[in-house]
């Protein structure tokens, strides 16, 4: 019996390519076939926060209290059916042309998805349909257009005859967009601040983590 494959994508860090921005840009995917496992635990976790006086509507790692993050990362670490892949961009090594959004997004998507979509990762040919979800609220209108074009072009070329769907939803409306936000944040903190506390709790789920320009020697700013 075949099934659907669900891929959720999040980007951590900012797009300021100067000394005023973050040092790294982290693009992360979370992949699964079961979108029910773990949802009850997240719901209970959310209501524990509310019961304690934190009136939260959804989970967002950057904004959440540390006590909330601690609980959520424990839950994520137990969801062994999840696959997490990530690419890391050291922004100062990103050549000038690639810093432009219309070139950056296709590059990010292709480099990110080539790992989980490789036949040694998740063999996409075994699925009825592939769905890719992105956070609608994390980018401007123009950036959404670049991202949509990049994802559609990549999926069309990579999946060939396998049907796919591209969904851009607010992360507040989908639990798995919140999960990938947490995973990407943890990986970002590892690279940006050498903070491994959250990263270590999800380390077993991370199947690939590749710093694309690690061998680069040219510094662009």
Keywords, separated by commas or semicolons:
221 residues, alpha/beta, six-stranded mixed beta sheet, 6 helices
Please give the structural blueprint.
Blueprint: E1 4-12, E2 24-32, H1 39-51, H2 66-77, E3 83-90, H3 101-113, E4 129-135, H4 141-159, E5 164-169, H5 175-193, H6 197-202, E6 206-211
Parallel strand pairs: 1-4, 3-6, 4-5
Antiparallel strand pairs: 1-2, 2-3
Helix pairs in contact: 1-2, 3-4
What would your notes on this structure say?
This protein has 221 residues and is α/β, with parallel strands linked by helices. It has one domain (4-211): 2-Layer Sandwich (Nucleotidyltransferase, domain 5). Helices cover 37% and strands 20% of the residues. It contains six helices and six strands. The protein has a six-stranded mixed beta sheet, sandwiched between helices. The longest helix has 19 residues, at 141-159. The radius of gyration is 17 Å and the shape is globular.
The fold-level CATH name is Nucleotidyltransferase, domain 5
Give the C-level CATH assignment.
Answer: Alpha Beta
Strand order of the largest sheet: 5-4-1-2-3-6
- For CATH, the homologous superfamily is named as Ribonuclease H-like superfamily/Ribonuclease H
Separation of the first and last Cα atoms? 52 Å
- Helix and strand succession? EEHHEHEHEHHE
Low-confidence stretches: none
How many strands, which pairing sense, and closed or not: the largest β-sheet? 6 strands, mixed
Would you report the number of β strands? 6
Which radius of gyration do the C-alpha atoms yield?
Answer: 17 Å
Using the alpha-carbon principal axes, give the shape.
Answer: globular
Strand content: 15-25%
Q: Indicate the percent of residues in helices.
A: 25-40%
Which structural class should the secondary elements be placed in? Answer: alpha/beta
Overall number of domains? 1
- Count of helix runs: 6
Mean pLDDT: 92
């Amino acid at each position: 019996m075949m099934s659907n494959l669900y891929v959720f994508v999040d980007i951590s860090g900012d797009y300021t390519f100067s000394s005023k921005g973050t040092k790294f840009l982290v693009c992360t995917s979370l992949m699964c076939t079961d979108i029910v496992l773990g949802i009850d635990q997240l719901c209970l976790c959310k209501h524990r926060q509310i019961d304690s006086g934190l009136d939260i509507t959804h989970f967002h790692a950057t904004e959440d209290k540390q006590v909330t993050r601690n609980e959520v990362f424990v839950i994520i670490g137990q969801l062994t059916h999840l696959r997490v892949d990530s690419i890391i961009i050291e922004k100062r090594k990103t050549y000038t042309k690639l810093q432009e959004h219309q070139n950056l997004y296709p590059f990010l998507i292709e480099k990110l998805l080539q790992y989980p979509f490789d036949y040694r990762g998740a063999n996409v040919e075994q699925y009825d349909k592939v769905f890719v979800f992105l956070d609608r609220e994390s980018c401007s209108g123009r950036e959404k257009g670049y991202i949509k074009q990049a994802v559609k072009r990549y999926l069309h070329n990579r999946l060939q005859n396998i049907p796919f769907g591209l969904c851009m939803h607010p992360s507040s409306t989908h639990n798995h967009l919140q999960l990938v936000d947490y995973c990407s944040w943890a990986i970002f903190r590892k690279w940006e601040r050498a903070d491994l506390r959250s990263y270590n709790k999800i380390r077993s789920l991370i199947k690939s983590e590749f710093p694309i320009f690690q061998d680069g020697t040219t510094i662009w700013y």
